[in-house]
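Lab meeting, action items carried over

1. Structure of the two-component assembly. Owner: GW. Status: complete.
Input record:
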Amino acid sequence: MPATELTGRAASPGLAIGPLHRLAERTGLSRAAGAPAEESAALTTAIATASAALIAIMAEAEGEGADILEFQVAMLADDALAAPAFAAIAAGIDAASAWRTTLDETIAGYRDGGDDYFAARASDLEDIRDRVLAALDGEAGESRLPPGAILVGRDVTPSLFLSVDWKAGGAIALSEGSPSSHVAMLARARGVPMVVGLGRLPAAGAVEAIVDGDAGCLILDPDAGAKSAFAHAAAGAADRAFAEAEAARLPGRFADGSPVRVLINVAEPEELDAIDPAICDGIGLVRTEFLFHRPAGLPDEETQYRAYRRMLEWAGARPVTIRTVDAGGDKPVPGLTIDGESNPFLGTRGVRLSLLKPDIFRVQLRALARAAVHGNLKVMLPMVTVPGEIDEAARLLDAAVAELAAEGVPHTRPPLGIMVEVPAVAVVPELYAGAAFFSIGSNDLTQDTTAAARDIAAVASLCDAGHPAVAALIANVVRAGEALAREVSLCGDMGGDPRHLPALVGAGLRSVSVAPRLVGRVKRGLAEIRPDGPA
Amino acid sequence: MAEQESTASVLLTHEVGLHARPSVKLTKLAKTYSSDIALATAEGGPWIDAKSIVRVMAAKAPKGTVLHFRANGPDADAALAALVALVERDFDEAGAHLSEKTHAGD
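Predicted assembly:
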């Protein structure tokens, strides 16, 4: 039987081969409902089974995973959770319906009321609900999945992910799912390759599979050719990693020897511990969302200041561009973002949200101005759409600076630039002279130019940075940057993809900021390009 | 017996309020005492069982709430002192670890 290859979306990088394990699909309840006493006993047993499974998983989890599980165990251990279900059973309802209705009401209570943090916990309650339903249905629960397996199914819950011993290898391939899901985040942190949005999966048959978490594809029943390609790719990956590490250490140069700047994108200060500053020309993008995703809630000024200062000190004299919090869209933050917008990508996100919540923004601006004393800091606003947003943010920055001056706190006012990611800006960048610099956010720019969401599998192929319109907009921004004497860089995924580098260089771009692991790959790609015209 | 009842109150300073982790810590601590312990987000109640995480989470107490405790039993005073101290220490979360390591999305 020939290999079947399915393409979806990459959610966590890496390559894996292993036996295929199909996750159980619960289509409906298979057990017959009995008398109230039997139903009550069945629910008690199912809750105990679910608790025991979670406790077993918790024993081996650590960090955030352990916190998630501890919360789930505590909820299940509390009689108050199931009390309405037992009351319903006594009134003649079957155990599964009673449990489902009770939990659904609790989940709705978490979702309602406009508190984002509690809304986010609803997924833990769904996890509990489904685990108990599975136990009622006679499944022991898949608490012990085979190590090293390729898990294939519709979606995966956090507790299921945490129950697997990933040290033995393995990967995840889902017909649905999202790269921004909780499980995708855990997979990236744990280095587990993961692909989502594969669409319809063959009903049965396959026994072995390869997951390519970089290309976003799943190969079912790989034939000899596919397996040798896998082995080659795995070996090639090792060779390439070596060559790229070599290239990373050299300064960025085109084929003609002219210079090109390669900076890095950073999501967390801890990442920098393993990176030699010499491989880059600075940090082109610091995503500050990491500070806002902590279980402890929104960060105070001191926490932010220390994180920013640490990155500036790492970079020394090199520039560090820190982006003000870019929450919203696919990056909800409890206590900050607005839930339930019909189209969050086109909603209250980035600088729009910051200007709507000036109290939270002010804390970040103060922390940035204080950190600016310790290095070469630039501050960047995400999702700018009209020039007035720059003016308003600048006014808030000036106010924060004036406060610090009045308090006698050491500070510097950093230059304030913008992400160019909304097409409205890329079409007429000359109107945005209020920005000290432009940094092109190619992901949103591509998504909004092609009107194709990057997280919807069916249109993912349309959301293509290779569309000539994207390159035309970038060329337009570069020209405006030259006319206004504003530096132009690019910090989206496009800059890290060697296939797109010729188009970027052709558009006149001479500076890209990429994920740290891609610096060598990008420098090798740039070294093959001969730029035309003035650099 | 009302004369054995102890009460205490403390301001909740945790940034996102009494959410999952603080609730787990608070109810776990409360369960280590034999006294009955109740919690309210207003002086007049309604009072909820401070040992029930389901009830404590359902209170959805945001930052800035004054938490009221009352306890009845042999170790009531010790229980309230410990619970108030936990809230005052911000649930020991100042050095909480970071999450979300992603390179996607710009």
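2. GW to write a short summary for the group page. Key points so far: The CA atoms of residues 37 and 71 of chain B lie 4 Å apart. Residues 95-105 of chain B have pLDDT under 50 and may be disordered.
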